[in-house]
Amino acid sequence: MSGLKSWPEPVVRVQSLSESGMRAIPKRYVKPPSDRPAETETENHQHVDIPVIDLQHLFNKDPTLHEQTLALISTACKDWGFFQAVNHGVSHDLMERTRQVWRDFFNMPLELKQQYANTPTTYEGYGSRLGVQKGAILDWSDYFFLHYLPLSLRNQSKWPSHPSSCRELLSEYGAEVVKLGGRLLKAMSTNLGLKEDYLQNAFGGEDIGACLRVNFYPKCPQPDLTLGLSSHSDPGGMTFLLPDHDVAGLQVRKNANWLTVNPIPNAFIVNVGDQIQVMSNMIYKSVEHRVVVNSGKDRVSLAFFYNPKSDLLIEPAKELVSEERPALYTPMTFDEYRLYIRTKGPCGKAQVQSLGSST
Ligand code: OGA
Ligand code: NI
After folding, report:
1. Does ligand 1 lie within 6 Å of residue 346's CB atom?
2. Taking every annotated instance into account, which residue ranges of this chain make up the domain Fe2OG dioxygenase (predicted)?
3. The total number of structural domains that make up the chain
4. What span, in angstroms and rounded, lies between the C-alpha atoms of 22 and 321?
5. Is 297 helix (H, G, I), strand (E, B) or coil?
6. CATH code, domain with 140
7. φ, ψ at 177 (rounded to 5°)
8. Host domain of residue 212
9. How far is the CA of 234 from the centre of ligand 2 (A)?
10. Does 267 sit in the ligand 1 pocket, CB within 6 Å?
């Protein structure tokens, strides 16, 4: 863990830069031309979108509709790694209020937010970079990161005490999203031909991990030169993203193209993370995504990460390993895995690919 104790450079809040009214962004936010939004987006004006799946029939079990829903989830996990879920069972009002409370948090004076300033040891709190590489090109965003589960890591004193409803809303929101996560793990297990509770057990049963990263993407005077969040795949199990309602920004890689997701009201954007890619022996893939910013509006998003228990060995399900399809990964705990991204910062899919055994 040495080298992870403090940031290599003074922390600058991107929100402060944005609010200063500067016309040109500092050099350390300027991406190389090949990573800039416009360079790779040339073919992206066709209106292709990630699948939208109505989950209502996953819950009340009309067998035909249930099967149809499973089939849609299966295709989305195999071909896209991403989908938007509607009728997912989480209260729309709760989603709205939770997003608003975080918007209010980021709109508080800087001094209040600074009380929660984070360090690279745990990343919990108010942060402005991922990774401790000195001189790294940074992303145009601030964030707040917190642990929801396991309870032993949940420390409400590290959650914002203002706005005053924040902690309570978070507890409720997390509980509902965790429930949804459990339901989707069942669906994925069934779709993979595994026992219904296989993935849940592989995640540690009741002892899963869960954390929340609230992203704040301030408006940017030169959005074509930078990214709100660099290309990455999510290291954990699966992610439930609550995007902002009226400003897009998330882009998903489909082959060589970056597709901009048009968020559907009250939907979650769900994606497969690296650990499910490993457990499914790459039948499901965690797909690269990134965030672009704009000059007109700040954007808030809540990324809820549903993760395996951090000290379990994660490996491909035996049932998905055969002579024709050998295990593509060697076992590793999620703790070990996560250390890499926390050191290097977001770097596409380099990590899950580097894990692959030589076959
Ligand atoms: C993330 C992420 C996307 C977004 O936090 O991992 O991919 O739209 N966020 O904020
Ligand atoms: Ni992500």
Report:
1. no
2. 207-308
3. 1
4. 55
5. coil
6. 2.60.120.330
7. -70, -35
8. 14-354
9. 5
10. no
Per the domain annotation, does 67 fall within a domain?
A: yes
- Predicted local distance difference test score (pLDDT) of residue 42: 47
Angstrom distance (rounded) from CA 53 to CA 181: 15
Answer for the pair 29, 43: CB distance below 8 angstroms, yes or no.
no
Question: What ligand has the least distance to the C-alpha of 143?
Answer: 1
Helix axes 166-191, 63-75, angle to 10 degrees: 100
Decide: 236 in ligand 1 pocket, CB within 6 A: no
| Partner residues linked to 240 by β-bridges | 270, 304
Which tokens go with 7? 């940031």
* Cα dihedral 134→224→297→241 (10° resolution): -70
Q: Which two structure tokens, joined as six digits, stand for 32?
A: 């190389």
10-residue block means of pLDDT along the chain (359 residues)?
75 98 97 85 61 92 92 97 98 98 97 96 94 94 98 96 96 98 98 98 97 98 98 96 95 92 96 97 96 97 98 97 93 89 72 60
Crossing angle of helices 92-106 and 166-191, rounded to 10° = 130
In a domain, 359, yes or no: no
Residue 63 counted as domain residue: yes
- Nearest-atom number in ligand 1 for the CA of 143 is 5
Query: CA–CA separation, 263 vs 162, rounded Å?
Result: 28
The two beta strands, 289-291 and 229-232, are: antiparallel
- 139, 143, 215, 290: residue to mutate for ligand 1 pocket, most atoms within 8 A of CB: 215
